[in-house]
Amino acid sequence: EDGYHIVRDIDSTVGVAISDASLPPRTWNGFLAPKTYKNVYLDTYHNQVFDDIFRTFTIDQHVKLACSLPHDRLRGADKPLIVKEWSGAMTDCAMYLNGRGIGSRFDGSFPSGKPSGACGARSKGSSSELSAQQKKDTLRYIEAQLDAFEVAAGWYFWT
Questions:
Q1: pTM of the entire structure?
Q2: Is the pLDDT at 35 greater than 80, yes or no?
Q3: Which of 4, 25, 72, 85 is deepest in the core (most CB within 10 A)?
């Protein structure tokens, strides 16, 4: 609440975003409630990259989970949601994603768990080297997330 009032003392019209702290958005119902607090948004985050369980997901499992988000996670919040930092990535293979000089969970070069596959072109920084199937899967995953996130007030795509 202190942060809200600090912002309001400077500008009464600017939006105030608060993080969901990786909790379900409904957890925050009643906190900075819209009836009393104006122009407050809840910043929610969902990825399918950093948890070990996602390393072995098929494209169908990624899409199914994305499609379930509006029903399981995104509905029922008492303030508008902004989905932050979502992407088409289904692995943590992107260069420097886990930090400079730190590897990937997916290929086993990150110091945890066992590898699920090779990063290959996914670590190059350009989609131009992905296989036709990888491009098709990425597009399918992005489209599923776009459909899911339509229930939100907005989103940020992480490139």
A1: 0.87
A2: yes
A3: 25
